[in-house]
Give the backbone structure.
Amino acid sequence: AGNAGLLIDNGIVVNENCRTSDPNIFAAGDCVSFPFNKSLIRLENVGNAIEQSETASENVLGKNIKYQPVPWFWSDQFDVKLQIAGLNNGFTKVLHRQNDNKNSFWYYKDDKLISVDAINDPISYMVGKKFLEIKKTPNPKDIMSDKINLKDMLRESK
């Protein structure tokens, strides 16, 4: 990529359409840095590679689709399942929701939800990811209440 004259910054730099600095070349996956929340990031995971390559291929065919991901990750460590939606860079507040052996951490930047880390708590992960996808922010008081059902809160926000 460098020998081809493409802009490189922790990977091949692409715009929101997966187009490189050469307007005739598109790139996607682990090798690219792309705009996300006003900075360039690089995500090296299967979900990103698949979703980004789908966007790139649509744009190769002449569409004008923007790649606007909600990053997500998961890892199983023995009896612990960690699931993450969003990126918590720049958070200003974090809330801890706990119920039995389930824990989740909800990251806000100012008054906006930006990320959820869930430990053995798939419901918090799925609800948090959905909130990020629909670009809505749950009330922090509701997140902290063990009397509020997260799925109901999501249904009510639509």
Q: What stands out?
A: The mean pLDDT is 94.
